[in-house]
Amino acid sequence: MTNPSNKNTTNQSWGGRFKQSNHELVQAFGASINFDYRLAQYDIEGSIAHAMMLNKVGVLTDEEKIIIIDGLNQVLTEINNNTFTYSVALEDIHMNIEARLIKICGEAGKKLHTGRSRNDQIATDIRLFVRANLKTLMTQVLELQNAFVTLAKDNINTIMPGFTHLQAAQPVSFAHHLMAYVAMLTRDKERLEDCYKRTNTLPLGAAALAGTSYPIDREYTAQLLGFDRICQNSLDAVSDRDFAIEFTSSASIMMMHLSRLCEEIILWSSAQFNFIELSDGFCTGSSIMPQKKNPDVAELIRGKTSRVYGNLTTLLTLMKSQPLAYNKDNQEDKEPLFDTVDTLSVCLEVLIAMIPAIGVKADVMRKSTLLGFTTATDLADYLVKKGLPFRDAHHVVGQTVAYCIEVDLDIAQLSLETLQSLHASIENDVFEVLSLEGSMNARDHLGGTAPNQVLAAIRRFESEQ
Ligand code: ARG
Hints:
- The protein is mostly helical.
- Helices cover 59% and strands 5% of the residues.
- The protein contains 19 helices and six strands.
- It has helices at residues 26-30, 33-36, 40-56, 62-80, 93-105, 118-153, 174-199, 218-225, 234-239, 242-268, 296-320, 334-354, 362-369, 376-385, 390-407, 416-422, 430-434, 436-442, 451-464; strands at 159-164, 167-173, 201-202, 229-230, 276-278, 358-360.
- The strands form three sheets. A two-stranded antiparallel ribbon has the order 1-2.
- It is elongated.
- The relative contact order is 0.10.
- The model is unreliable at 1-9 (pLDDT under 50).
- It binds arginine.
- Residues 32, 36, 92, 118-119, 122, 326, 328, 330-331 line the site of arginine.
């Protein structure tokens, strides 16, 4: 029999049953402290709640509880002051903090881990992390929406070509276009709110996988940590990472929206569109082409979208073959999760600053709307109101457009006689219908681009906040 005191192990926390130390590669390979140090404040928050609960149920004395909580607060202070020394030998944030706690408060510190495992501990830490970041992100989404709304208010009567297939389709209010992004962001925010509900569920108490033999009070821990619910199955509690996937999925959808926006910003700021002027503060030059002003920031947000999609794929793939319950694979959830939070947050931050710095070139937008027969549908609708079936009206207008292309004129530039030769029912009132304002104002119903409807959409958004 081996002398228990004479064992060659590296890790004090779990080394009891080991005869040999780890291979030299294993320590660094298995350690997560290089990234999970970011969870320190949540780990300590969870530990304080755990200590209070252990005291409430009689596992820790009042004195031990006080010593532990004071010790944990001291560790947090050291971390915040950058005087804490992280050690790879201590593998992860949990053991780094626990080792320091034991140094600070001795025997009492050794009792903190009673009735808990790193499995339910890490599950709790990342839920606290996601929960906190969801709050910040929701605030940022609202700030971005407000930036759009401010720009929209100045552009209710700014006419731009609305596109389908990136071909000029119909005149729309630029504000209406901006409010489309506000609508997307509202759904994005709702997805975060929804994810928050499921994230805000307490896994602590599941211990390693099966629960614990101590008379723990999970309701009390949940209450202390502000969790609305408690994970109802211990196996699920330690192994569930749905909330992280759900968050990254919501983040991916939001990044997709930001990427579409950025794509439009890139197009609009090109010399060919020339709809907007991006402020110099958000562009860069070229080292060879002196004329260049590149929309790098928008391009980078479009590019960063791929990182977040990659993170979602990583998390989904990470989970797909794991048997219940906890597996070390789960350690791989941190970096994609952190990266998703960081990427989404910085992209929102940059956009919140960039949107107000957009210079709108209303004249160019207007001139561009006059190209491509954007009021052709209005002429067809006009003929329908004169009694033609829509299909026939569509055909007549198609022929009118073909004629306009031949003579290089817009429909509105044709004389009344010419228009009447195309269809006898056309009268002088057609020119109002064929004007850009006439076209835009005509779409006067909920969700339409008529300025009063766009204003109503803005008011609706504002009243919902
Ligand atoms: N670093 C681990 C993780 O990120 C913490 C939990 C470790 N648990 C264990 N039984 N090895 O998932």
